[in-house]
Design goal:
five-stranded parallel sheet; binds flavin-adenine dinucleotide; seven-stranded mixed sheet; globular; alpha/beta
Length: 474
Amino acid sequence: MTEPTSLHIAVIGAGPGGYAAAFLAADLGLTVTLIDLELNPGGVCLYRGCIPSKSLLHVAKLIDETRHAKNWGIDYADPKIDLPRLRSWKEGVVKKLTGGLGVLTKQRKVEYIQGKAAFENSNTLRVSRTNGGEDSLTFDRIIIAAGSRPAIIPSLKLETPRMMDSTSALDLSDVPGTLLVVGGGYIGLELGTVYAALGSKVSVVEMLPGLLPGADRDLVLPLHKRIGKVFDSILLNTTVAAVKEESNGIRVTFDGPEVKERDKLFDKVLVSVGRKPNSEIPGLEKTQVKVGPRGFIQVNKQLQTDDPAIYAIGDVVGEPMLAHKAMHEGRTAAEAIAGHKVAFEPNAIPAVVFTDPEVAWCGLTETQAQKDNREVKVARFPWAASGRAMTIDRTEGMTKLLIDPQTERVLGVGIVGVGAGELIAEGVLAMEMGALAKDVALTIHPHPTLSETVMNSAEVFFGTPTDVYRPKRP
Ligand SMILES: Cc1cc2nc3c(=O)[nH]c(=O)nc-3n(C[C@H](O)[C@H](O)[C@H](O)COP(=O)(O)OP(=O)(O)OC[C@H]3O[C@@H](n4cnc5c(N)ncnc54)[C@H](O)[C@@H]3O)c2cc1C
């Protein structure tokens, strides 16, 4: 076998998974070629996912804060939205970050090819360059990091700018008077939050009985209450039976037991019903790579596929389809190829919904514990008892720990509230360090901060919280 340091590897796709793998592989001494359709690395996350959505959510939060400020004696006029400037600010953020990755690619001497890759065999790729020309290139190893794309429901497919997916919604071509978001998952709720702040009357329709399926209900409740006030309507247990374009909008037909208005006209409809892995890479059938029933490429803990020369990482290998999971898988694959003894087996992968309030969790959820019939103790700390939450007038939050009753080990953490996405990192660290509830309770947190609520939850477990009254555990 070739010495690891003399290996030449190719990475297909330069999203968070692909560029992390390529950069670390180069740092480990491998020769790396990175292939992507875009001018610079970044993938969905930087071009049409995490980064543009969070830029716009920041603006939405600011607008909301100014409206809220009335309660504190400060009255702002209604905001004037300069859409072209807002768009160009968001595009500027994307350009700076992706341009920065372009520079890092050159600094590491990673060969970057803008183009589309197809397999000729397990070690050879046919690359069609965006600026013309085709090459047949042979590599020792290939990492597939082709990511995912929005899922489409055929009955909701209309070729009109009035129908949007997450990508066109982020383009922000206008602020529709009325917007229907199909799908109550995180992407739909985040983008709905942006449009609502900019002035659209937003409705959301979800076929399941609750928003954010997969998250614990007590975490979703405060969010549901708040967006219930900000959105025009939230339709649960409801499906979209049909959509039809009319001269002044999209006529949507709803179906379900709770439907009051069967037909309704919306200026625009955003379909956000999940994502599909990009595993249909041309020529993949010429390799031994196996694709599972849901379209995910099958890999082992080193991210190696059934073809020993091919690895796969990120959205294309499975849930959770999140950038930070992709990056860590990318690093593991690069190290595995370089000959290190590694495995991708995290104790916890955080999930964050960047709505207002934010919802975040990691490790075991109560929903999962119930499904598995697993006994857990849940210690909840309400933010109504947090000094910091009071000072920012956002006491609807809650922090909880799921604790093993025998070992008192932290099994999971859930947080809803302002900044939950930042706070959850402590929970992930606690889980990776195998922390006991006592460790969390004895960790001195700065006051007054929302981070104290993590420590306070552990105190609740022991029946000794100072800031709320809980009878001691027997
Ligand atoms: C609106 C939105 C918001 C999101 N917000 C968050 C968030 O806040 N936090 C979070 O963690 N995740 C978020 N995500 C998910 C996140 O974007 C993905 O999990 C992440 O981008 C996956 O990374 P990846 O490396 O697997 O692939 P991707 O980022 O999907 O990149 C894959 C790349 O491969 C390229 N490619 C595919 N096939 C080929 C080929 N044959 N040849 C050459 N190139 C190819 C594609 O062009 C693409 O650039 C969001 C997604 C969306 C849509």
